[in-house]
Write a structure and sequence with these properties.
Blueprint (H helix, E strand, L loop, with lengths): L9 H5 L22 E4 L2 E9 L7 E10 L5 E7 L5 E11 L6 E5 L3 E3 L3 E4 L5 E8 L8 E8 L3 E10 L2
Parallel strand pairs: 2-11
Antiparallel strand pairs: 1-2, 2-3, 3-8, 3-9, 4-7, 4-10, 5-6, 5-9, 10-11
The structure holds copper (II) ion.
Length: 164
């Protein structure tokens, strides 16, 4: 039993033992602004952003919009950022446990991007969890995020740090 998927190294990056058990108060601070989008093999990734981090914050969440313009489903398997920004990045989903302001976060193996569909990573839902942030992220900073898809391959986008 060696499904084709497992021949791809990406899946190993996605299956991380890192379990994010941090409980935090969501600080939703999205502000609409234009940002670059990247299109590769029919997959459009845009509006990658993360809130400015508090002093000495160890964790952060990156949000992004993923649009599949293909007629076939795709899956997001992995995420990574330069080690100079954070020690690890993993795809997680927030689940409300005690009310809208409190969440628990679970690692996800993959995120299905429907054919001709869009999945938006946003506060309270899917996000790319950064752990071991090297230095507080400041508004205006930018860094690379690599997202690994089953069909579209690895797509590199620029994440913008937004003021909170
Ligand atoms: Cu998380």
């Amino acid at each position: 039993m060696t499904p084709r998927l497992f021949s791809r190294p990406l899946v190993f990056a996605a299956v991380t033992l890192f379990a994010c058990t941090a409980i935090f108060v969501s600080a939703c601070s999205s502000s609409g602004s234009s940002s670059s989008s990247v299109k590769q093999r029919g997959m459009v990734v845009s509006n990658a952003w993360t809130p400015e981090s508090a002093t000495a914050a160890d964790y952060g969440s990156v949000y992004v919009t993923i649009e599949n313009t293909n007629a076939v489903v795709d899956k997001l398997f992995s995420a990574s950022v330069p080690q100079s920004f954070a020690k690890s990045a993993s795809v997680q989903e927030s689940v409300a446990i005690a009310g809208p302001a409190t969440t628990s976060m679970n690692d996800v193996i993959s995120v299905t991007i429907p054919a001709n569909g869009t999945v938006t990573f946003e506060p309270g839902g899917y996000h790319v969890m950064l752990a071991g942030i090297a230095a507080p992220l400041k508004a205006g900073q930018k860094f690379d995020l690599n997202l690994g898809f089953m069909n579209a391959g690895i797509i590199k986008v620029t994440v913008t740090v937004k003021a909170s």
